[in-house]
Design goal:
Bound molecules: 8-demethyl-8-dimethylamino-flavin-adenine-dinucleotide, P-hydroxybenzoic acid
Strand content: 25-35%
Number of domains: 2
Largest sheet: 8 strands, mixed
CATH architecture of the largest domain: 3-Layer(bba) Sandwich
Helix content: 25-40%
């Protein structure tokens, strides 16, 4: 088989890139290791920046998003001293959009189906070849047979545990990493959200987040030690702990119910540089991971896709080979901005096991500044609603 762009990974990055390229008249093939149902079953992000929303509209898959999403003009931060709100609209004239990653992925699959896209699921042992030359190719196994795809470019959209990043020789890439000493236990429940807007809570027992997907579907998280397992946490234990960490006014009236999904995610900051090796380009979680505290992972994946789409379009349609050199630098500037913000949100909201009294006082001072200083709120609101592309 031959195509112009071979895309490894059929998550949001890979599908959105394929969708934009196909609409520009560029051929793609997407290779995904899992089944479609498995990809659609993953519960992840819930908050979209304007840039991501606009890109989804540009890709022709914004109809349901336009109808069913919820605009949030601010969010709440809860501390031992009470709760305060950061008004995004008042501070920077922006909002965010609440719409689940599951729905985004669903819409992307529907749009890809409508274009007749080639998406090969259950593609195993994907390997990348001759990335440095002018004629790269990709091999994979399916149903016991080995297949070959010849292509002009490879987009590595295969997430943090994919093979694309590993295909860059170790001495040609630099990895920057911070691993946090805790994880998030998340629960999805068919209950009305606890509040109209998200609540990020800093509590002596650990961080908590009250989020949502729609008026009847809620998403909650609590900080847990990395040694905890999902089996240790009954629904009742989860709700009891969440109630302790949220403001009493919210906890007392919060609806609870059976969990539809329950999982633990570790928290990590990670970036690889550069994002290009010959004809391979890394996109989304394959290139970087942020802790979910800033709601940036999916949004960064979208901005990477935007930059790579522009790059490939210029290289393929306008024969502008120089454009290929710009992707990594352009994307990394925005990536490090989101890295800083996600690290900062994580550091002011969680309890660290080795936190000294000094660290504790600094954290309280950070939160007090955010509560009382307009300039601090402007910086937070600008980052949360999304740095410019
Ligand atoms: P994905 O979604 O991991 O998709 C990669 C795809 O590649 C496939 N794959 C392979 N395919 C072929 N061959 C191989 N060797 C392969 N290896 C892997 C995988 O099966 C998969 O289908 O990466 P992508 O597309 O870059 O998208 C990134 C986002 O999924 C991620 O950044 C966000 O979910 C992060 N995130 C959040 N982001 C936000 O912007 N806002 C949020 O509110 C937010 N909340 C979250 C989050 C992530 C979370 N978890 C579980 C990590 C909350 C949580 C709890
Ligand atoms: C979510 O709804 O899953 C969510 C929202 C905000 C975050 C992280 C996750 O910062």
């Amino acid at each position: 088989m031959r195509t112009q762009v071979a895309i490894i990974g059929g998550g949001p990055s890979g599908l959105l890139l394929s969708q934009l390229l196909m609409r520009a008249g560029i051929e793609t093939v997407v290779l995904e290791r899992q089944t479609r149902d498995y990809v659609l079953g993953r519960i992840r992000a819930g908050v979209l920046e304007r840039g991501a929303v606009e890109l989804l509209h540009r890709a022709g898959c914004g109809d349901r998003l336009g109808d069913e999403s919820i605009a949030h003009e601010g969010c709440n931060l809860s501390t031992v001293n009470g709760m305060f709100r950061v008004d995004f609209q008042a501070r920077v004239g922006e909002s965010v959009t609440v719409y689940g990653q599951t729905e985004v992925t669903h819409d992307l699959y529907a749009a890809q189906d409508a274009l007749g896209a080639t998406i090969i699921h259950e593609a195993h042992n994907v390997a990348l070849h001759d990335l440095e030359g002018g004629a790269p190719w990709v091999s994979y196994e399916k149903d016991g047979q080995t297949h070959r795809i010849d292509c002009d470019f490879v987009a590595g959209c295969d997430g943090f545990h994919g093979i694309s990043r590993q295909s860059i020789p170790g001495d040609k890439r630099t990895e920057y990493e911070r691993v946090y000493p805790f994880g998030w236990l998340g629960v999805l429940s068919r209950t009305a959200p606890a509040a109209d807007e998200l609540i990020y809570a800093n509590h002596p027992r650990g961080f908590a987040l009250a989020s949502m997907r729609n008026p009847t579907l809620s998403r909650y998280y609590i900080q847990v030690p990395l040694s905890d397992t999902v089996e240790q946490w009954s629904d009742q234990a989860f709700w009891d702990e969440l109630r302790r960490r949220l403001p009493a006014s919210v906890a007392d009236s919060m609806q609870t119910g059976p969990s539809i999904e329950k999982s633990i995610a570790p928290l990590r900051s990670f970036v690889v540089e550069p994002l290009r090796w010959g004809r391979l380009f890394l996109v989304g979680d394959a290139a970087h991971i942020v802790p979910p505290t800033g709601a940036k992972g999916l949004n960064l994946a979208a901005s990477d896709v935007h930059y790579l789409f522009e790059t490939l379009r210029a290289a393929i349609l306008d024969a502008d080979a120089a454009a290929l050199d710009q992707y990594s630098t352009r994307a990394l500037t925005r990536i490090w901005g989101a890295m800083r913000f996600s690290w900062w949100m994580t550091s002011i909201l969680h309890r660290f096991p080795d936190q000294s009294d000094f660290d504790q006082k600094i954290q309280e001072a950070e939160l007090r500044q955010l509560e009382t200083m307009e300039s601090a709120q402007v910086t937070m609101a600008r980052n949360y609603t999304g740095l410019p592309y």
